[in-house]
Amino acid sequence: IRYQVDDAQPTTLVLKQGQTTDIPPAQTQVMLNLGNRTTLKMKINNREASFPADTPKFSSRVIISRDNLQTFLQ
Q1: Engineering a disulfide at 32: which of 12, 62, 73, 74 sits with its beta carbon 3.0 to 4.6 angstroms away?
Q2: Angstrom distance (rounded) from CA 26 to CA 4
Q3: Closest Cα to residue 64, out of 16, 4, 17, 8?
């Protein structure tokens, strides 16, 4: 996973099965670059979240912002 919160430097990490991590809170957006989104479970503000159906399963880039947040929480 590679993520960038607002205008901060991007961070890259590898999660093993069962491992979790917290991403710092954002003011405007979080950009995620994912290798395999099908194996990733996500929570936003401690709420179960899912990727929109049209998100590619592999090598996907996702931007989560206030404008589209509800599409992840449905």
Answers
A1: 62
A2: 9
A3: 4
pLDDT tens, residue by residue, 7-47: 999 999 998 889 999 999 999 999 999 998 888 899 999 99
Mean pLDDT of 52-71: 93
| Phi and psi, residue 37, nearest 5° | -75, -15
DSSP label at 70?
H
**CB within 8 Å of 34: residues ≥ 6 apart:** 1, 40, 59, 60, 61, 62
- Cβ(24)–Cβ(5) below 8 Å: yes
Residue type, 42: M
Predicted TM-score of the model (pTM) = 0.86
> What pLDDT is recorded for position 74?
81
Question: What is the Cα Rg of the chain in Å?
Answer: 12
